[in-house]
Amino acid sequence: MPVPDVMFCAQQIHVPPELPDIMKQFTKAAIRTQPRDILQWSYGYFSALSKGEPLPVKERVEMPVATQKNDTGLTPGLLKVLHKQLSRKETVTLQELQIKWKNLCLPAEQLRSILRLDNFADEVEWMKFFALGCSALSGSLIGSMKHACEILTDDPEGGAARIPYDTFAFLYSYLAGLDEEIPEAEVRSFLSALKEQVERKNYMVGVADFSVRKKN
C-alpha cells in the first residue's frame, strides 16, 4: 500500500531550541578533528555528548608533516584527545580503550602493535599506554618525552611545556626500562641530576630542561 502524501506546515514541525547550537558545535568539532570516517567519529561524538563524557575533539587542526608520505594514524592531537577521555581512571579496560580508539578512526593494527610492547591483558594502566603512544610518535626516548610534556602541560602553546617531575620520572623510567640498551644506572643518574636541576622550579620539568641535560 503506497504511503500517502503528507503535508507538513511550520506549526507541525517541532525543532528543539538547542538543536542549532548542537549542530554548530558538532560542525566546528568535525572541522578541527578532520576524522577519516565521519560516520564512526560522529557516533563517538554524540555517544560521549549524551553521557557527559569528554568529546573526541582536537583542540585545533593539525597540519600534516611535510615529510610524512603516509598516514600514520596516531597524532599528538589524537593522543591528547584519548588522554582527556581516559585519564580519569588509572586503569582502563581494554574494551573501553578499543572503543575510544575506534571512534577516533585510528587503525586497529596500530593499537595492537602498541599493546604488544607490554604485557597488557584485559586492563591497561593508562599512563603506561600513554607513554607507549608518545613513543609511537617519535623514534627516540627524548622525542617521546617531548611529546609527553607538550601533551600533558598546562602551559600555553609554545611555552616551556612543563609537567610535574614525578610524572616525567615515571614516564621516562618506564620507557627507558623497555629499552635493553639503556642501563638502569644511567636512568637513575639522569633523573637524579634532573631533579636537582628543577628543585628551584618547584619540581616542574620543561622540554628545555631535559633536552639540554641529555645533550650534555
From TrEMBL:
CDD domains: DD_ROP. The keyword Cell wall biogenesis/degradation does not apply. The lineage of its organism: Eukaryota, Metazoa, Chordata, Craniata, Vertebrata. Belongs to the ropporin family. InterPro entries: ROP_DD. This is Ropporin-1-like protein. Gene3D superfamilies: cAMP-dependent protein kinase regulatory subunit, dimerization-anchoring domain (1.20.890.10). The keyword Chloroplast does not apply. GO terms for cellular component: motile cilium. It is found in: Cell projection, Cilium, Flagellum. Keywords: Cell projection, Cilium, Flagellum. Transmembrane segments: none annotated. It comes from Eublepharis macularius.
